[in-house]
Design a protein that fits this description.
Length: about 525
Amino acid sequence: MDDFFISSYGQFGSMKRFLIWFIPGVIAGVLIMFGGSSVIRMTSSSEYCVSCHIHPAADASWKQSVHYDTRSGYRVACVECHLPPKGQGYLWAKGTTGLRDLWSYWTKDSASFNWDERSMLEAARTHSYESSCIKCHENLFPAGLTLEGEDAHLYYRQTKKTSDLHCINCHLNSGHYIEGYTHGSNATFGLVSSAPKEIFTEPATVNGFTSFTEQIPGSPVSFRMIAVPGGRFIMGSPEDEPFRKDNEGPLREVEVSGFFMGEVEVTWDEYLAFYAQTSAEGRTTDTEGLRARQTSDTDAISGATPPYGQPDQGWGMGQRPAISFTFHAAGTYCRWLSMVTGKTYRLPTEAEWEYACRAESSTPYFFPGDPEKFEKTGLRARLSKNDTAVINSYIIYKANSQAKTQAPDRVKPNPFGLKNMAGNVAEFCSDWYQSDAYARYPEGVLKNPRGPESGDEHVIRGGSFLDMAGNLRSAARSFTRTDEWLKTDPQIPKSIWWYSDCFNVGFRVVCEFDEKTGKL
């Protein structure tokens, strides 16, 4: 019996010790759970987000968006887009994002935050979760959805696994309002009301090989063409040039004949003159200062259909370089310009482009400077202004572009008189692209080379407002990426006129110095 009591007492003592630890643990766990839940709720409010994210533009644009003032009256909070749904990595994402944001809040100046750059698609994709979009928008084919919307959502569903599409590829302004943003077919594109202007009836007359100002008949638009003298140069880059790529060699000696080249990339004013006179839909007259009246001569060329969305990305048109159109559209523009002016306009060859960009220089840029130093300056922004004064005066690129194209008056011309050859937007060339094109040419001096006879993509030259210094070098080469640049376009068939996913490529024109130009 004594042994029984001793055993029972021992068990009771163990139970007592267990309860002494267990009950407080349960209480503490409950407090942590409910307290933690309260902390999570408190730090998930939009007001709390704004207390750290001191970016008035972000807050203001959110309050103008369709997710703030919804039809149902429900107000979508920041975390509902910028964090994944609960149960799908929500706490981990909240913790890591919160720590990152706190570090930025304590160590960085909010005034240095470039909201325009962060609101662009590629940046926005990294700060929003598609799973959160789908959680709220489970039905992609709700009642009242337009036929155009049905086609777009069907395309998304069919290509989701292979196209890497994100909801915001098409709905970029859903969470933050973007001025001028258009989703869907933009039937009013190009209809710009303005005060009446003098309409040119004749193109420019050229007397000899000298720079001239071209006039587009049937429009008030003119542009400057620079006489680029012929000569020889070394095309490509030496193997020790910083940021050099294999497709920039081997070095070749090239001779080009003289030609005229656009002082700046084709502007929106110039491209809209073409669009107004040739567009396949939505044609109007020049009544009340709208589009210039199209002439019967221009009907021979059928131009672009209305774009899907806003081609200028809301950055403005006018003298900014025209963007978002395809290589086909650029070539058609040149054929149309040749027809209305009586001259021979075309895209530059790759050799002509590099010759014009170099302007008799043989260094990485047509101005002095070290690509590696410029690259570090742009990335770290810690060197003095003197280190970037030269490159900033000649080129619009990532470090000074504010994440958008700029008007040409921001920069100085190169020694030939051409502006932004190395920046602002990259530029189409007429050549088919091959990585080893230089090696395929015959031995000796190449005279007016025109590239491979065939290919899948075309050459692109020059950097853009998205590029750092390494891609701005005179020898840097790139190429079109047709499928990738039409990834978001839901139309069947896809547009031959407009890229849906490329906003940093344009072109400038070349005019041949021949019997059509004028008096030789």
